[in-house]
Amino acid sequence: METAKKKNVELREPAYYNNRELSWLAFNERVLEEALDKRNPLLERFKFLSIFSSNLDEFFMVRVAGLQDQVKVGFTKPENKAGMTPKQQLNEIAMKTHRLVDLQYETLQNNLLPKLQKENVEFVKMANLSADQLVVMEKHFEDHIFPVLTPMAIDAYRPFPMLLNKSINLAVVLQDEVEQAEEGQKIAIVQVPSVLDRFVRLDSKKGSHKLILLEDVIAFFIQKLFHGFKVISASVFRITRNADMTIHEEGARDLLKEIEEELRKRKWGAAVRLEIQQPGFDPAILDYLTDELEVHKKDVYAIEGFLDLTVFFNFYKKMAPIWEHLVFEGKVSQLPAAMETGKDIFQKVSEQDVFLHHPYESFEPVVQFISEAADDRDVLAIKQTLYRVSGDSPVIKALKRAAENGKQVTVLVELKARFDEENNVQWAKELEKAGCHVIYGMTHLKTHSKITLVVRKKDNKIERFVHLGTGNYNDQTAKIYTDMSLFTSKRQFGIDATNFFNYLSGYTEKPEFHYLSVAPFTIRTDIIDLIDAEIRFQKKQGNGRIVAKMNSLTDKTIIMKLYEASNAGVKVELIVRGICCLRPGIPGVSENIQVRSIVGSLLEHSRVYFFNHNGKAKIFLSSADMMTRNLNNRIEILFPIVDEDIKEQVKSILELGLADNVKAREQDAAGVYHYVPRKNDEPAIDSQMELFRRAYQVAEDEE
């Protein structure tokens, strides 16, 4: 097959690319499809509705906010892949998001809530309560809600309040009972307290639950807050603000303090979206709010139902233990076969590399590794990168204990991990108090790599143990994110890890590595070299093949090289969960490329890169997606799997993902995703459930 160069195909043509933001919305649509999927248990469908809303909140706070800022300053240059200007992107985003939100609420109102009612859970309106029930609710309002409320009047002395990001509020129009003229009308804002449970439970029969929205209760009794005034209307609304932080790293004498200051500002960014509850929203208040908040009409979302469906995530967590028949069957992570009992973890890793695949295999060995290092008399030093950790992190506890035990502990805590900045600032302070040496990363770069080095002196010899992974050191997300990691004691990995940490913590030139490839320096060029090798093998042997699994693919240089490989005849199979700017199946451009996305009960998070290499497969795991931001602006690690048995394990996992015909969708040449079709006689393959089955089987065989 002729190459793209010979065909004179212009690979930069915008028609060959998906816009980043619209591709993300397509991913969130796949999340929403899980809420529509009747094969999923009812509570799980509510959870997916919640995840869809949470994703959309963050999308507006960061991506839409950034585009709006570009429009405000008159930036009109098209983005460099699909060629859309900021204004064009905002228009397309608004059209697609309005459609998706309408579908979300149609699913809630017409499908999920009626099914929930069959389970004896009903959302009721205050207006439909009996006289006796109203008496009960009035007492509840006066005893538990009224004392927390703060009405905020708006007049010449009290301007429009700075409302919290993502808060739900009531805009109340009041008429002075003495001054009956229209100019006697006033406006006040009442914020729905986030400290109170959003769902107020009405006393009901055993086994039956009647729930009322907190804002509905407040609106019904709102008159009690405004004596001497008549309430004309009470309209429920929610605002989303620009939450992207601007950190001036160059001039920052103390990055931690700089970030703490920016965190305070985040709550008060410019409004980027206004959601209003219909029916019954006062049209005059809508005009007032859009003017006061400076929100464009296309960014106003009129919701037929209650606002902020992220509330269903807490609802799911609260009800899942009670309604086991309405959630996915619980799956238990297994101890990896390589982790036999009776040996400490250092002995095991000194004998062989150990591969873990979470959550099918337990994250506990990772916690155990750091915990044993903290207490082991022979351990001299622990060095670790932390990007996101859990609220009550056993990893943090072990690192603090290690420092208290006299170990030299160095921890790179990435303070700029978006929406985890506050947690990470707190962890950094706690680690420092315990005696750890804490560093915050490098100027203008986020440290996104996942690596731990333990240095040990045994029998008068220095040993180095390394853990490398695709996911964070977070024991909670490790239960719901699919990730891969590796323990090794190989000497050259240990040397690479030492040089990597010395580079991060001190003043030294970028080191040369034996095994590691590190962004922003070499990952892109190394991946391109590997693709070029597949092109050469295809031309000589006809066996070029690339399989890559990642969260997102946006880097244009990588995409163009994959197009070139496709035109050379290389078979390219991509498993990309989220954003994918590459379009497969375009004749003469990407006809040998397949793109699929798996969205299921677990969040696909591992990054795996396979190159056939003329039958001598090269397989790499990485903290990095093939995104421009990861390859240019983050400290990332790409590392090889060198053990042949582990290579076969990883290859088998990839092949299973390519065989999934239950939760997989394929992208067509127009950039649209469709469920993978399955023939009548073809067995259903849910890759996530099959991986759990395999893990169980291995555990049984070991017994």
From TrEMBL:
The keyword Aminoacyl-tRNA synthetase does not apply. GO terms for molecular function: polyphosphate kinase activity. It catalyses: [phosphate](n) + ATP = [phosphate](n+1) + ADP. An intermediate of this reaction is the autophosphorylated ppk in which a phosphate is covalently linked to a histidine residue through a N-P bond. The active site is at H448. Its cofactor is Mg(2+). Residues 344-509, 516-688 form the Polyphosphate kinase C-terminal domain. PANTHER family: POLYPHOSPHATE KINASE. Belongs to the polyphosphate kinase 1 (PPK1) family. This is Polyphosphate kinase. It comes from Planomicrobium stackebrandtii.
